[in-house]
């Protein structure tokens, strides 16, 4: 009847790093149709299988088990049940022996009718279909998570200033245990931290060839999601990968600048020795106090209007610089003028408030509202904590301080759920790539996959339930409902990306199907449960005539909702529908 979908990317998705603007990768309509038929058939089979199995368990006579409607393309008869596959995979049914006015029931079968079963048995038979649709995604998600083989180790790559980990953890620390629980991946560490806002955590860390204990208390972070869903998670301010050896140079009189190095150069070798991270660069130059060494680098050069303006890209130019660090015992920046490029502006949108304030690529951010910033993440936090008011930003250019006032660009928009939301944009960006650590195997892959599958299923169920509540409350427009065309489009889009994406989409749609079937609308499973509730209260079944009228009303309501969903589909996808129909005809 309808589809509510949370727009987020699944963990572990890997995307093509570049794709021309306006071009998306999709299969042909015929392939999309195949994906759609496969998904519908599987989910309907799972749903009807729930009803069928429990009916058999309780001894109810099942006359027909059918997947699909219309002409039968496959049919065979078992001992007492006919099994059918219809041409149109848009529904299915399990026909049980029932007492009604149309079909007489033989005396020997009277105990095997659906009505003859105890109330609790009938409840289980009815609820088994939606339950299968809700539980089936656990298996689907599990199959995706158990197939993940690329896990980052629990090694600290970067510590954000002003967060609980500052001064307690350092880049290169390997976290081995949290409160006595052994961990082997960064994902496990992030999960435990996220579940522990305000709770003291004891970390066993391997640092400098010895084990140390670190106590840290995650700060509480409020995460606002669509449909006004609010979550509180823990955060300590660490990232898993170390910054690459991309340098920033703020002083034109520094040895690095005089040697020909420039901001955003990616150092690859020092004296012939490979350099991957900025920490490697610091180590390579740590004992040098005046000796000239060759430094090999790659310099990104932007290509204007690449591919006719379809993409933004840069190419590397290689070079070698003869760097002579100054003597003394200062840090790397003091002796060479080299530092991480994290705080340097790589790009500024022309015409933006940042551009009008005279901020330019290559500037080094120093302060926001007279408060020093030591990381780009801190710079963004200071701007976004009060996005509606002007901020005074100070930066360095050629060793000279400059400042300007910036008001973030605001866009008011209506999201796909009909809710009004403001968005704020920082029109300046940095470029500070990271070097991922070598991937490791998960020490407890099966428990991890099961837990992740249960968590993901719970999140989707909560999202859909909240979405239905918001529609009933009038806070979300009914125009957000999608029907078969939306399902077709989603399935085709995800199926074209690969099997795991298709499985992911199938899981979300299965949960939608299960929860929608539980709505208290006669003719749906939820409507039957509503009848059973009245029967439990009155101690007798509702009269057949009342059930027939209620089912007719429920059918009308269902047709109205389906019509609304179909109308929404057509309005959103009219151009796409026309294009794909032309492709099918041609």
From TrEMBL:
SUPFAM superfamilies: PDZ domain-like (SSF50156). GO terms for molecular function: metalloendopeptidase activity. Its cofactor is Zn(2+). Pfam families: PDZ_6, Peptidase_M50. It comes from the Bacteria. Its main location: membrane. This is RIP metalloprotease RseP. It comes from Polyangium spumosum.
């Amino acid at each position: 009847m309808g589809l509510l979908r949370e727009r987020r990317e699944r963990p572990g998705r890997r995307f093509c790093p570049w794709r021309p603007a306006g071009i998306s990768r999709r299969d042909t309509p015929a392939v999309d149709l195949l994906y759609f038929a496969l998904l519908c058939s599987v989910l309907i089979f799972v749903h009807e299988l729930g009803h069928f199995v429990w009916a058999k368990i309780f001894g109810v006579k099942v006359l027909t088990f059918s997947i699909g409607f219309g002409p039968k393309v496959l049919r065979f008869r078992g001992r007492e049940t006919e099994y059918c596959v219809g041409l149109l995979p848009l529904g299915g049914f399990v026909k049980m022996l029932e007492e009604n006015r149309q079909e007489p029931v033989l005396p020997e079968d009277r105990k095997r009718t659906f009505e003859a079963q105890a109330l609790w048995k009938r409840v289980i038979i009815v609820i088994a279909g939606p339950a299968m649709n809700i539980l089936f995604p656990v298996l689907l998600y599990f199959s995706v998570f158990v197939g993940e083989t690329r896990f980052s180790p629990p090694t600290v790559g970067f510590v954000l200033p002003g967060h609980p980990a500052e001064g307690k953890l350092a880049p290169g620390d390997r976290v081995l245990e949290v409160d006595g629980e052994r961990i082997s991946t960064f994902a496990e560490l992030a999960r435990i931290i996220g579940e522990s806002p305000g709770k003291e955590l004891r970390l066993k860390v391997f640092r400098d060839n010895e084990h140390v204990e670190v106590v840290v208390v995650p700060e509480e972070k409020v995460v606002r999601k669509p449909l006004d869903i609010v979550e509180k998670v823990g955060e300590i301010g660490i990232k898993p990968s170390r910054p690459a050896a991309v340098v920033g140079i703020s002083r034109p009189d520094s040895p690095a600048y005089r040697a020909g190095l420039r901001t955003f150069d990616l150092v690859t070798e020092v004296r012939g020795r490979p350099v991957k991270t900025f920490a490697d660069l610091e180590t390579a130059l740590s004992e040098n106090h005046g000796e000239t060494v060759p430094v090999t680098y790659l310099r990104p050069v932007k290509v204007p209007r690449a591919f006719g303006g379809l993409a933004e890209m840069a190419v590397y130019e290689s070079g070698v610089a003869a760097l002579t660090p100054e003597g003394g015992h200062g840090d790397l920046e003091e002796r060479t003028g080299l530092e991480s490029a994290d705080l340097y502006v790589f790009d500024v949108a022309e015409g933006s408030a940042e551009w009008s304030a005279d901020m330019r690529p290559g500037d080094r951010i120093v302060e926001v509202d007279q408060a020093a910033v030591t990381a780009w993440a801190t710079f963004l936090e200071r701007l976004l904590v009060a996005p509606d008011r002007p901020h005074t930003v100070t930066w360095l250019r050629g060793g000279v301080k400059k400042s300007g006032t910036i008001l973030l660009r605001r866009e008011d928009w209506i999201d796909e759920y009909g809710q009004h939301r403001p968005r704020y944009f920082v029109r300046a960006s940095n470029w500070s790539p990271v070097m991922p650590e070598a991937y490791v195997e998960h020490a407890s892959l099966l428990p991890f996959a099961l837990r992740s599958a249960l968590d993901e299923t719970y999140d989707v169920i909560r999202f859909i339930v909240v979405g239905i509540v918001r529609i009933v409350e009038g806070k979300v427009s009914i125009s957000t409902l999608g029907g078969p065309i939306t399902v077709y489009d989603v399935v085709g889009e995800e199926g074209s990306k690969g099997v795991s994406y298709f499985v992911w989409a199938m899981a979300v749609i299965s949960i939608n199907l299960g929860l929608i079937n539980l709505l208290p609308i006669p003719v749906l499973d939820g409507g039957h449960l509503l009848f059973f509730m009245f029967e439990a209260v009155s101690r007798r079944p509702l009269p057949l005539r009342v059930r027939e009228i209620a089912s007719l009303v429920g059918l009308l309501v269902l047709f109205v909702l389906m019509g609304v969903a179909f109308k929404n589909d057509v309005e959103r996808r009219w151009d796409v529908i026309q294009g794909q129909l032309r492709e099918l005809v041609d």
